[in-house]
UniProtKB/TrEMBL annotation:
This is phosphoglycolate phosphatase. One of its GO terms (cellular component) is cytosol. It catalyses: 2-phosphoglycolate + H2O = glycolate + phosphate. The keyword DNA-binding does not apply.
Amino acid sequence: MPAYSALIFDLDGTLIDSAPDIAAALNAGFARNGWPELDPTYVERFIGNGPHRLIRDILDDKGIAHDEAAVARAFDGYLRAYLDDPAGRTRFFDHVREDLGALHAAGVRLGICTNKNHAVTGKVLSQLGLDGLFEAAIGADAVPACKPDPGHLRAVAAAMDLTPGTWAYVGDTRVDQATAAAAGVPFYVVPWGGGAEVAVPAGHRLTRLADLLQHGRKASAAE
């Protein structure tokens, strides 16, 4: 059984249910253009590819005519609203907070690779009391190309000075899976978020994050 001294996680849909806050921020942005209000359950279907893609995918799905200026206006409103209230409606998935603490206590080093805006990511982690658990957390706009580009995931690994073969990536979408595959690292999927739709080999589908304690180990002094 593989033993990992570090684990990198996706954020939205993997550690937290942030769809209500994302939807609220999107609605603030959409209101600038007189576009219709969005339900969090609907928005959740499009989360995972970053905010710019999120806005465009929803506009295309709803058949809303738009130009670049309108998209920029919506994004600016979204970002301002999200930075103002980053996690007021966000909740952890079952046992996530305690399991992250257990992994950290076991000596497993933790990082985050997310397509969420980088500044928003920092605020969300801080508000949820998670910022002290992660050595590195890199959002979509802090790298030249975000997930599924493997450079995004490799940037987190580089920031943590990780050695190839000692770490894995954990997520909930096919985007996360494709990112891990392109980076050449093992991938584990959570049962919530979009995890049920992702096909993985036996042993790579988690029931909760504590399952990863079977794969983690205390990092040695050399690491």
